[in-house]
From TrEMBL, chain A:
Residues 42-72, 115-146, 147-176 form the 4Fe-4S ferredoxin-type domain. The lineage of its organism: Bacteria, Pseudomonadati, Pseudomonadota, Alphaproteobacteria, Acetobacterales. It is found in: Cell envelope. Pfam families: Fer4_11. The keyword Iron-sulfur applies. InterPro entries: 4Fe4S_Fe-S-bd, 4Fe4S_Fe_S_CS, FDH_Electron_Transfer_Unit. This is 4Fe-4S ferredoxin-type domain-containing protein. Its main location: other. It comes from the Bacteria. It comes from Craurococcus roseus. The keyword 4Fe-4S applies. Keywords: 4Fe-4S, Iron, Iron-sulfur, Membrane, Metal-binding, Repeat, Transmembrane, Transmembrane helix.
Amino acid sequence: MDGGLAHPRAVPSAPGMDGVEVPVPQEAELTCGTRIEPGKSYGFFTDTTLCIGCKACEVACKEWNALPADAVGLTGHSYDNTGALGANTWRHVAFVERLPGTPEARGTEMPPFQSNWLMMSDVCKHCDPAPCLEACPTGALFRTEFDTVVVQQDICNGCAYCVPACPFGVVEISTGDGKAHKCTLCYDRLKGGMEPACAKACPTDSIQFGVVEELVERAGRRVEALEAAGQERAYLYGAPGTPGATNGLERLNAFFLLTERPEVYGLPAAPARPAPRARPGILAGLAAVAGLAAAALVLGVGGGGGGRR
Amino acid sequence: MPQWDLARSDVVLVMGSNMAENHPIAFRFAMQAKARGATLIHADPRFTRTSAMCDLYAPIRAGTDIAFLGGIIRHLLENDLWWRDWAIPYTNIATVIEEGYHGPETGDGLFSGWNAEERRYSSETWQYEGQTVPSPLAEAWMETGGDFAERVSSLRERPPARDETLQHPNCVYQIMRRHYARYTPEMVERITGCPRGVFLKVCDALARNSGPERTGAICYAVGWNHHTTGAQVIRAGAIVQSLLGNVGRPGAGLLALRGHTSIQGSTDIATLYDLMPGYLPQPHALRPHKTLADYLEVETAPTGWWANFPKYAVSLLRAWYGGEASEANGWGYDWMPRTVGDHSQLPSTVAMRDGVIKGLFVMGQNPVVGGSNSRLVQQGLARLEWMVVRDIAETDTATFWRDGTLVRDGEMRPEEIGTEVFLMPASLSGEKAGSFTNTHRLVQWHDKVVEAPGDSRSEHWFVYHLGRRLKAMHADGGRPEDAAIRNLRWDYPEVDDQGEPDAEAILREINGYRVADGALVSSFQDLKDDGSTACGTWIYTGVFPEEGKNLSRSRVPDGPNGPGTHLGWGFAWPANRRTLGNRASADPAGKPWSERKALIRWDEGAGEWTGPDVPDFQKEKRPDYVPDWSSRPKGMDAHSGAEPFIMLADGRAAVFAPSGLKDGPLPAHYEPIESPAANPLHPGNPASPAAKRWEQRSNPVGDAPDPAFPHALTTFRLTEHHSGGTPTRIVPTTAELQPEMFAEIPTELGRELGVRDLDWVVVSTPRGSIEARALVTDRLRPFAAEGSARPVHQIGLPWHFGWAGYATGDVANLLTAVVGDPNTGMHENKALACGLRPGRLFRANPPRTEGPN
Amino acid sequence: MTKPMEEPWRGETYHGRSALKPAGFDWKVAAYILAQGVAGSAQVIAGAARAAGGADGDGLVRRARLLSVAGNLLGTAVLVGHLKTPKRWYNMLRIVRPQSPMSWGSWLLVVFGAASAATALGELLGGRFRWAWRLGEAAQAPASLAGAGMSVYTASLLSTTSNPLWSAAPVPLAAGFGAASMANAASALALLQRNAGEHESARRLETLAALAAGGEYAAMRAAERRWSEVGVEAPLREGGPKALFGPAAKGLGVALPVAAQALALVSGPGAPARDRLPPVASLGLLVGGFALRHALLRAGDDSAKRPGDYFRAAQGQPNRADR
């Protein structure tokens, strides 16, 4: 299908229906046309111009990953009663109402693929390099063979350092088990050749799963198609060289197509990889201590003690 | 049309539906159309998640759909934007109507034929000139005076009178021009509140995408149905599509989005009281239905496909009755129960309240949440002797006696309620085999994949074993009703230790078979009226054409480069046709209107209709066939080769409906029964005069605009919850997404009342009040309204909530009224008037709190 | 039509909801930073005293070594206590992560703990066993070096995050933490020396503490300027952090010591105040040191909850590590 909506789900015949002539394919090949192999980078391209805010991704995620309900309650923030990503919420659909115009006519017209009610399914960005992973002192956070970032629950000791490290407020320590939790990009499903639950559940292909390089290319074509259709505000967030992939973050393996400034969706315009700040800090600190040590020598802190021994 | 065919539309108008929220999978195809450059339009009282995806959003006050659609019809006619080449041959727009006809424009809102005393219409003056046309719906028979069968037989004598120059003052075209003359853009704005500029953009988008090369689709759901004018709203949409040539063509159609997984299937196989499977009319005690012969005589249309009616009716009887059924007792017809009136849900609710109905089965429904006037429903339940609730959880209905509104408000105490409630656990779809029939009539099989927990059982199991017990109870009785039950066929093989009946055996019976040897039949053309065939639902014939071949199991898609009809995926009734009326995708000569929009065509060499879809036409009927009227042709022989719609008596789309409707042959704008606005078109009859009303103490109904109820109210569903809420409010991961009842109110009203997000408000109608938290939003708005100095604020209430489960809140349907569409008995929960104030309500017994915290 | 990124940010946030998660570092972490700062800098001072040579410093070196072990043990205990799964503390030693100050800290803690323990062993057994004395002396240099690291790495730990407040001023923050650690250690040792009757040594340490406190003050002023520049200073201007950062950290940690020492100086030799006020100054410095760390942790959590601060700070300037 054209317009960047291609979902090569349909195959000429359903294999395995009439005797098993072909090897049973990976399910992901059927559901999203992607073969999942170790050594390649996988991620999400979330196209917010296609999101209908159905939250199927949230439910599919919680069901597959057996995450408990947070029961945030009614927030009054449009239809968002999820609030934010967290230990028990690995997909979060944001809702922003922006209906311009007079009371009678407000919201009646939209530029192509621009919504007066923005919806965006947020998720862990699986950054490259990943600040949470770089912060983790135990190695519980690791980069998988699929170039995704996962917390090993049997290693994490809940030091919580990944929490402030994350530039997107994704990782959180569970008050239940005292470990850090976040999206695994369905590591278990990837191992089984299956598309992540959220992407598979998305009815409009707003969430697309695939090899990151291919997704970036597809997303670029989508931006061009939108521009051609008159939606000139579309841009990518988190793809290499775009907002979100800034200040040492080479790319976000889960990246987005947005039509408003990132802050509107709760994303920083130019997030930074924290790690480079470590060295200048420690050097300055050591210099201060060294200076004071020298002062101690000059002051003769060793003296004046009377030498009782 | 198949939902997936929406991807081929050039314009999609979603109206009366929140498609993205409530039909997200079908909406996928609308999104594909959009990606291909189609224009998406949403017309709705609320800016919803559907509006957010559209290019154009047309705000209309709830209950003004016909004014909006009528305005489109006028715009198309007056600006000559309709597709004449298609509509003149394929619709009855050129047909001449009886001289006595007059429309509501001259009758202050009344059509000709109004009987003020009985508050109903006679349709005699709506007929084709000199001919009586039977309804294409289930009830062919109408009260017309005289011998109905004789009157309609005139259709076999000559074709209906037509004036293809459209000059005849009583041809449908001229009638429609007069009828819709006042539906100008200015009037549309005055009634609906939609700015005329926006309205004209909608007209333009529809007109622009009509013609040989382009098609458009309209998607609707219960936002159209749930009005006292519901059937007429849908008619108005059908007229628009008929004028634009959007019937039977790729990417064209009027798509009814059904609310539940298999609600289409349950209509096909007859949950409605007045229908038998396959849209055959239920015998009626007060109609000429005494014997099978009588019934067949008056219910069989002389012309068109319904002339085959006796074959389907007799085959159905043969499937139902064994034992002593014979030609002499009408193959069991004499044992069949007769209806005596309106037994639909609304009057049944009133009958429970009045103590007429003593027992109730509630299966897959939650009427205290979903039924109109929930207080009346609960009062009715409280007067039952017994109630069986079969569901996957303890529903609000099952606990009305403990946690319900009557108890909460101190009206009754649980110990005063005598209803004996039986709660039976039901299995979910993955826990049983069976089929779903979706919106586009596609039957898809599903297998049982896991055991149901505990004592949960399938509906098949429950009904089958209930039937067996009933048969055992009536095995020896001497009364006629004993024989009626005793002689039913009820012999499905059991497939497991629990006694689950074989679902495929049921499907084989639905498909039909030869009585003599049990061989399955492959087409309804093989069904006979001589008792030699049995068939549970004639339209499904072919789903199981031979042993071991259940086509609803088939899962072979066309692939990305295929024709896109996916004939190998499931089975679409009838005869696996994907697009009904697809003869209209070719011109009268049998050639596709354009290659871009080709579907079927006449193949002169082969002498048959061909194409990627199964033709909805006699396969070998030549396009130039003309009936020989001297031979008094019957059935399909009375249709020419260029009359595309086989189910209609004259083969042409009925933009003017001479029969089948109880409230007029053309849609006219009536306000809801309870409306905050006056009707500028006919102030004497602002609301539908023929609407069904059941006023009583428990169901007070307001009339004229009432200052106590100055706002427009509509109820709606959310994508996060399933209708009555049972499957989603009990599941924490869905309950948390919309955790409690709320009221959507416009920013302007919030400002006026000092109400902010999450503040409590009380919403009231003549039936009572509920409380909810406010969501103050720009998505709703005030509308200028006729007869109201102040703007009318549109209020929206989700109706999913109740007291069971984790996501709870007041029942929106405590506010709605038991009033109904005269044709369908459908309630009017989508448009009424309400009052709103900040604050909370006093509760005698505050609700139990239950939740994950 | 322009791309949204070409338009200025007008203060939009997502419903005012935070875009970051607070770290949730509580008083235990503040106590850890203080304890390890004191322990680490005590070894730096011990090293300096040893380097200055002479048996005059033996008492100071002894107390510094023992103080560092005590501080280290206390610090480690509260650190493990702050873990949400404390029984898995040892997983900190599974890997070495050069990008993670938390990982450095874990290993520093090991090296420093071992070296400190060795120096303490030298103190405790050096009189009886020659090898112990040698071990203690040999461990002094590594203990001092690791101690310097212990004194400052916690600042780096805070600034190597996405927290708007912590990350805005990595250089001044680390300089400030280093100076604060030295001031706290010198103060603690001064108290011990006074307790042991070594008033002259204590006075020198108090002078060192004053110098360090001055450095800390200057560094934190620089940090504050930087926070104002970036626009993330608000959390330190309101609520609990304001009280901690202002009256507690600056009042007890800077103003009180300065006043006490000044009074002691002007009171003239022999006056009771001359020996009684300096311990007040030292205690004030220690309490102020804790308040400073706790203020920064609390304000950091508040900062994370302020999406406007984060979005303002993350407006696409070049990598802030350079500043």
